[in-house]
Amino acid sequence: MHFRKAIEEDLQAIVRLLADDELGAKRERYEEPLPECYYKAFKAIVAQAGNQIILAIDGQAVIGCLQLTIIPGLARQGMKRAQIEGVRVDQRCRGKGVGEALFKEAIAIAKSEESGLVQLTTDKQRDDAHRFYNKLGFMASHEGMKLIF
Q1: What residues contact 12, with CB distance under 8 A and at least 6 apart?
Q2: d(CA 128, CA 89)
Q3: What's the whole-model pTM score?
Q4: Of 124, 123, 125, 118, nearest to 139 (Cα)?
Q5: Which GO terms describe its cellular component (predicted)?
Q6: Residues 91-133: tens digit of each pLDDT
Q7: What's CA 132's distance to the chain center, in Å?
Q8: What share of the chain is helix, strand, coil (3-state, %, to 5)?
Q9: Closest CA to 75 of 117, 110, 107
Q10: Burial call 24-41: b when 16+ CB within 10 Å, e when fewer
């Protein structure tokens, strides 16, 4: 297994992963051809400094992904934060260390970018994900809130 930044040709595989669970199936549109909204969003991610999709690759297959965004800030004496979103591991590869290795890669990138912390949000319904994040050392230190339009 190795890691790399996503390119546009990876979008089909990424959206397949995002849609491949109970919550994602309700949120995503994994279809052929892939809806244009995904291409537009990917182009915006690539264009923004400090924003990337990291892939876990086994052979030629995309088996995991996450979005890592480095956020400059004034709070905490100008500390940068790393935000992780859109975490998925192929169902066939879960429990095999893929997610942990993917997070270690993202954390190493965040440290190399001089981020002072890594933060993420996770749906309250994802009990397995909560256990996984706790095992990696993440703490539920804040209450997250969203305003959806």
Answers
A1: 32, 34
A2: 12
A3: 0.93
A4: 118
A5: ribosome
A6: 999 999 999 999 999 999 999 999 999 999 888 888 889 999 9
A7: 14
A8: 40, 25, 35
A9: 117
A10: beeebebeeebeeebeee
Q: Which domains are present in the chain?
A: 2-135 (3.40.630.30)
Tokens 């915006």 correspond to 44
SS3 57: strand
* Token digits of residue 107: 């954390």
Q: Are 69 and 81 in contact (CB under 8 A)?
A: no
Tokens matching residue 92? 């066939």
State the DSSP H helix or E strand holding residue 64, giving kind and residue range, or none if neither: strand 61-71
Q: DSSP string spanning 31-54?
A: -SSPPHHHHHHHHHHHHSTTEEEE
In the numeric block, the tokens 């190399």 are attached to 112
**The pair of three-digit structure tokens given for residue 135, joined into one six-digit string:** 């095992």
Mean pLDDT, rounded, of the chain: 95
